[in-house]
Amino acid sequence: MPVINVEDLTDKDKAVMEVNQLKLEVKLERWLTSKCCEEIKEYIQALVEEDTLVKGISEEKNPFKEKGGCVIC
């Protein structure tokens, strides 16, 4: 998709783009926020055992683990 510089468009072109965007948005299915929050909460709780942010990274799989100590002589 080509990049469009909005500053180069006429007011009519901007209005047409806005109308087209609004036509797309009006077709989207809307959900209640409370329902979405419950689904997200259930999803997070179902996968909490696999979540490395909660559980941490095991020493064997940690790519940032120090390979050896630094010795200054």
From TrEMBL:
Q: What does this protein do?
A: Guanine nucleotide-binding proteins (G proteins) are involved as a modulator or transducer in various transmembrane signaling systems. The beta and gamma chains are required for the GTPase activity, for replacement of GDP by GTP, and for G protein-effector interaction.
**Protein name per the record:** Guanine nucleotide-binding protein subunit gamma
Origin organism lineage:
Eukaryota, Metazoa, Chordata, Craniata, Vertebrata
Q: Name one GO molecular function term.
A: G-protein beta-subunit binding
Localisation: Cell membrane
| Record family assignment | Belongs to the G protein gamma family.
Residues covered by the G protein gamma domain: 5-73
The record's listing under PROSITE patterns reads: G_PROTEIN_GAMMA (PS50058)
